[in-house]
TrEMBL record:
Domain of life: Eukaryota
InterPro entries: Cyclin-like_sf, Cyclin_PHO80-like
Transmembrane segments: none
Keywords: Cell cycle, Cell division
UniProt gene name: LOC100804706
Organism of provenance: Glycine max (Soybean)
Gene3D superfamilies: Cyclin-like
BP GO terms, sorted: cell division
Protein name: Cyclin
One Pfam match: Cyclin
Annotated family: Belongs to the cyclin family. Cyclin U/P subfamily.
């Protein structure tokens, strides 16, 4: 299984990363990746500050909540959040609305478990799991866990475990009303104004294809068997 750094295009190295906007991808991916990158940076800065203060007091290491431990990796994956979101959208056939609802789930997690922070060690697993659950709630047709595992760079067994963990952490509160959905869309659009774009995010369902999935990634900490082949 290739790592994120092993992306290739028929044997040729890929060109430097292109922005989501330049690739004509849904605007929700751009604003969501920006918000998550800021959240991760803020949380990791907080952890560093607390660690330095505790070191000065000889009080040991920072102790955070363990609610998100199942989603933690030993090291941060090399693939960026924008590229990871792009990959999920491109290959899973999910609608743009799934990313909004996936964000709702992550936000609910942080409010229900405020002592557990979203960091570079868990954000990728949280994303692929949240979007997958959202697609099951929103889309009439969606890929199964094996496909999401292949796209997300984890084993099918691990993704099954992550899905169950997410559901229990949310107390199975995975329904999102139209009012809540619109409020999160509005919040994301306000963030776009702050970023200087000031455009509305997509709410319509947009079918995609997965028959050109040519590259593999892995965000697992250990080498795993090759992922299952896509079945027709």
């Amino acid at each position: 299984m290739l790592t994120a750094g092993d992306y290739s295009n028929h044997g040729r190295p890929l060109q430097p990363e292109t922005s989501l906007a330049e690739l004509n991808l849904p605007r929700v991916l751009c604003v969501l990746s920006s918000m998550l990158e800021k959240l991760v940076a803020r949380n990791e800065k907080l952890i560093d500050i607390l660690s330095q203060e505790l070191d000065g007091l000889n009080s040991g290491s920072v102790r955070l909540g363990n609610s998100l431990n199942t989603f933690h990796g030993v090291r941060a994956p090399s693939i960026s959040i924008p590229k990871y979101l792009e990959r999920i959208y491109k290959y899973t056939n999910c609608s743009p609305s799934c990313f909004v609802v996936g964000y709702v789930y992550i936000d609910r997690l942080t409010h229900r478990h405020p002592d557990s922070l979203v960091t570079s060690l868990n954000v990728h697993r949280l994303l692929v799991t949240s979007v997958m659950v959202a697609s099951k709630m929103l889309d009439d047709e969606h890929y199964n866990n094996a496909i999401y595992a292949r796209v997300g760079g984890v084993s099918n067994a691990e993704l099954n475990k992550l899905e169950l963990e997410l559901l229990f952490l949310l107390d199975f509160r995975v329904m999102v009303s139209s009012r809540v959905f619109e409020s999160y869309c509005f919040h994301l659009e306000k963030e776009m104004v702050v970023n200087g774009t000031g455009m509305k995010i997509e709410r319509a369902l947009t079918p995609k294809a997965m028959d050109d999935l040519e590259t593999e990634i892995s965000i697992e900490d250990k080498q795993s068997p090759s992922p299952p082949q896509i079945v027709e």
